[in-house]
Amino acid sequence: MSASSIKLEYAIVDVFTDKRYTGNPLAIVRVPASLKLTQDQKQSIAQEFNLSETTFWHEPKEGDEPNTWTVDIFMVNAELPFAGHPTIGTACYALSEFAQNSGADGIIQAKFNLKAGPVQLDYDVAKGHAKAAIPHNVHIHERTWSREELLAVQPALNGHVADIQTVPIVSIVKGMTFILIELKTLEALQSVTTTGSPMSVSGLDEEWKDTFVGTYFYVQTAGADGVRHLRTRMIEGTLEDPATGSAASDLAAYLSLTHGKPGQTLEYEITQGVEMGRKSDISVQVVLGEQSGIEKITLGGKTVPVMEGRLLV
């Protein structure tokens, strides 16, 4: 081992669950205020963990705003401006520690600075539940995805999608885009598979085309007490994700814009990852503007710690 190696503390947590070994795993790397990691170092660490995302939780510097942290989010091959499960997972882990160290209880209010912008957080200490008012700039692309394109990558859906002509392509922010495919039955949802190659979609709107693109399949399972319940799966090429907060927010935003009324608040409970054996429970609240558009999107969920350790840089 090199004498110059730096040891960084890390944790792995399961997000959108309160049961270990379900939900979506996340690696959280604590970065001391005295240390500056390069982009290449962060990318290499994310590749080493080989999870869907790794976050770098930067300890505050002297003079920083109280209860405010900078968080960077990396996939194994790129940095993301925003992603839901890393935001909720890091919030639960960081604010749980803050509560233990400070003796705080009730609701803790805090903020993350992400590449996509500031994110206001509420953490319920007793429930271990975090809510994040996520950055959003919802854009419905002019281009849609055809049934032929869908069946080219999901041939097992042939016979389940006769009523589909086209499906929408929606960005929650620049850089995070999802093709939203509604299916009628859980049987159809179970027929979805990963594909042999990464997703590639041409013809997106010009200022929005430099983006991650995933396919998000959903079935509306129930709606009671003003809450819509959905079952979902997120596929991006060879990857299936157990819980995708950005996709859940994207879908809730689209459904609210197309079915809601100005000034209305809509609630969604989304269950993902069942087919993978990693059930995840995601809550989303969408507040529509009094005249038009979306005023606020709040993503919520729980997190459970799985392991802790040190890594060498």
From TrEMBL:
Catalytic residues (positions): E53
Transmembrane segments: none
Matches recorded under InterPro entries: Phenazine_PhzF-like
Signal peptide: none
GO cellular-component term (any): cytoplasm
GO molecular function terms attached to this record: isomerase activity
NCBIfam families the UniProt entry points to: PhzF_family
Name of the protein this chain belongs to: Diaminopimelate epimerase-like protein
Species: Pseudopithomyces chartarum
Lineage: Eukaryota, Fungi, Dikarya, Ascomycota, Pezizomycotina
